TrEMBL record:
Example of a GO MF term: DNA-binding transcription factor activity
DNA-binding region, residue intervals: 38-57
Gene3D superfamilies linked: Tetracycline Repressor, domain 2
Record flagged with keyword Iron-sulfur: no
SUPFAM superfamilies noted in UniProt: Homeodomain-like (SSF46689), Tetracyclin repressor-like, C-terminal domain (SSF48498)
Source species of the chain: Duganella rivi
Domain HTH tetR-type: 15-75
Protein name: TetR family transcriptional regulator
UniProtKB keywords: DNA-binding
Amino acid sequence: MKFDVKRRTDPERAQNRRNQVLQAAAVCFARSGFHGASMSEISKEAGMSAGHIYNYFESKEAIIMAFVDLEIEHVTGQLRELEGKDDPLQSMIDDAPKHVDENLEPEFFQLPLEMFAEAARNPKIAEALRAGDQTAMNRFRPIIKRERERRGLPVDDQLLDGRIDTVVSLFHGLPIRALHRPQINRDSLVEGYRVALRALLLT
């Protein structure tokens, strides 16, 4: 019986250890970047030996891939929440302040920016991000199409693709704009996003 209990708790312990490594890596990556942060720096931040870390991640690239998976899970969760709204399109407009605030927060956008930069030079990371984006679009596009049809708005493929890509680009580009212009006025930005989203989604 004791052996069975141990077998049940080991996966939980292993997951806790993985999370410990990821939390440490997030600090190191935000401070030094993916390439600047070494495994020894991550192990020191995590409070465990580098050899111990390799029990959970075979390489630094594997840690980066874990963050890619977490980003995909985050987006999937947002889309799942959107699906449950009575009026998803209006909810996207109403929730502009929340999403703007998230994308202006360095703690939120530092790792995604590192992922995008890494994808530009690492085909494996690029492939994973593209696959995640395709999964998200397969879930997002039907929501937009259904709600536009409900309003009697055009839903041809080219139009939908253009509107969706523009909406996604608005949010992907916000952290870069915030880095260039740290004094950006948040309230004016929210209003601008509401105007843009209303035009993209409801016309």
